Amino acid sequence: MKAENFEQKFDNGDEDMINDLDLSTLKRPNQNQKRVNVDFPIWIIDSLDKEASRIGVTRQSIIKLWLAERLEEQFLTRHLKQERTA
């Protein structure tokens, strides 16, 4: 399908456009993964499991979420410090 036709379907509000896409080549930017092993004390594992269960996600998901949040926070803090000194 040509881009013009796809855009026209989008503009017309056609809901079933997913079949017009080739999802086999779909990639998410900055989402390449690398497996790492990390050893945690039992009390941390227990706490992670309790919190993960409370919000309904896996242990791995909560670790990823918390690490991403912390890294973003660190990035923003450094960025703000750089702006203040500039």
CATH class: Mainly Alpha
β content, as a range? under 5%
**How does the helix and strand content classify structurally?**
mainly alpha
Note the run of SSEs as H and E: HHH
Mean pLDDT: 88
Number of domains: 1
Structure, described:
There is one protein chain. This protein has 86 residues and is mainly α. It has 3 helices and no strands. It has one domain (3-85): Met repressor-like (Arc Repressor Mutant, Orthogonal Bundle). Helix 2 packs across helix 3. The N and C termini lie far apart (49 Å).
Keywords, separated by commas or semicolons:
mainly alpha; Arc Repressor Mutant; 3 helices; 58% helix
Short description:
The protein has 86 residues and is an all-alpha fold.
Q: How would the blueprint of this fold be written?
A:
Blueprint: H1 3-11, H2 42-55, H3 59-85
Helix pairs in contact: 2-3
